[in-house]
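Notebook, student rotation project (T.W.).
Task set for the rotation: take a protein with a known small-molecule partner, predict the structure of the complex, and write up what can be learned from the model alone. Partner molecule chosen: guanosine-5'-diphosphate. Sequence and SMILES entered below by T.W., checked by me.
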Amino acid sequence: MSGATGSVIAVHRGECEVVRDGEVLALRWGGRRAGPAPELAIGDEVAFDPARRVVLDVLPRRTRLARLRPRFPGREHVLVANADRLVIVASVDDPPFRPGAVDRFMLAAFAGGLEPILAVNKVDLLEGGPPPEIAAYAEVLPLHWVCATRGDGLEALRPALRGARSVLAGHSGVGKSSLVNALRPELRLATGRVTRHGRGRHTTARSEWIQLEPGSVVIDTPGVRSIAGAPGAIALIDRVYPDVARHAAGCRFSDCAHAAEPGCAVRAAAEAGELSPARLRAFRRLAADP
Ligand SMILES: Nc1nc2c(ncn2[C@@H]2O[C@H](COP(=O)(O)OP(=O)(O)O)[C@@H](O)[C@H]2O)c(=O)[nH]1
Ligand SMILES: [Mg+2]
Ligand SMILES: [Zn+2]
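Predicted structure of the complex:
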């Protein structure tokens, strides 16, 4: 067997596109493994036979951005494989900033071995200073304030993407594709409003692999409504809420959920103004439904 390997940059029904040394090949599954072809994800590294144009095997995944399939308990759906970084894209407004979604993406990033960063777009819509609720994220993960239309913050974001594979994820309409276009204007990715029926004709329909510069790839994803159920995530919740976790050592019970338990130091901290009550509520929501 001739030993070629490459990266999956697009997945279609019954076929995938694999890039190797800058050349893109369309390949079918032709592995000798019994049973159905494995489910490939964008970013997968595969071994293939260039002569027969078939994928022979999928190499072990270094990282994965995944969620559980709601209708198949225990089975995960890998959205992107082998990415280094998750750029959580949110907007200050239009659509409104949703901390619960940011926290969920962070949890999924930690669960899959990706490093999360937060890019808050549409700063042109800010009236007055940065909202404290958003600014507080700077204590939890790297935070970039950006504006895809005016270009604010892009030169600071660029080095954060250099030499790595980054996934851009966030709700539809926050400006993910606009940001990629602003970083590489010649790309002209489709951007626009999502209609009420959820099918904007001018928005990203599938994940797109974009070579930003040599050694830097960004993967633009369609608006993911929710990444609920990242496998193995709940054990990592303290990394999403270090401010909550800091107080938990003082709780009477080591498995305190900081809800109704007596002797809860976290609740006491929130009541004393040492911890944001909104952060505690967010922690409890995510802990109850990761
Ligand atoms: N005001 C403002 N609008 C923006 C900005 N970036 C993107 N938009 C608009 O937001 C809408 C959604 O952008 P798009 O890139 O398609 O979002 P995506 O669904 O996250 O890829 C489009 O109408 C964009 O023109 C920005 O920095 N400021
Ligand atoms: Mg898009
Ligand atoms: Zn507690």
